[in-house]
Design brief:
This protein is an all-alpha fold and 134 residues long. The chain contains 6 helices and no strands.
């Protein structure tokens, strides 16, 4: 629901979203002679739209810039969520639901665990001094 609202906003406010450098592309794609029988209008997603291609590219370029200044990482961690964690199970059992029915609970518990891990790594100096992190 929220994502569809964001997409509608992007579609309706293309002029204000600084996509003017794509105007030639947009004009070409909206030209009836070049479209043939295609219907619709091309919408350009800004790099601020989470999970869009430009968003992912921006994250990649940010990471490469950090590597250029600080150096390449010595460690890369990935944290995943387990719906059978006790904290999640306790919260969802109170309402007779499953973790899949309560994505807000799963998300909150994951965020708490992520914050604790980052706190341990940054302040606990588990792996030594930190030069940079994202």
């Amino acid at each position: 629901m929220i994502e569809s609202q964001k997409l509608n906003y992007v579609r309706q406010h293309q002029q204000e979203l600084r996509v003017d450098k794509y105007m030639n592309l947009s004009a070409y794609n909206n030209d009836p002679e070049t479209l043939g029988n295609q219907k619709g209008m091309r919408v350009i997603l800004p790099s601020s739209f989470v999970s869009g291609k430009r968003y992912m590219e921006q994250l990649y370029f940010d990471g490469m810039t950090i590597c250029g200044h600080i150096g390449f990482p010595d460690l890369f961690l990935t944290l995943t969520c387990n719906p059978t964690w006790q904290k999640i199970q306790r919260k969802v059992r109170k309402s007779n639901m499953t973790p899949h029915d309560c994505p807000d609970v799963v998300s909150r518990v994951f965020k708490m665990k992520l914050n604790q891990l980052m706190n341990d790594l940054k302040r606990g100096h588990v792996f030594g001094a930190i030069l940079g992190c994202k």
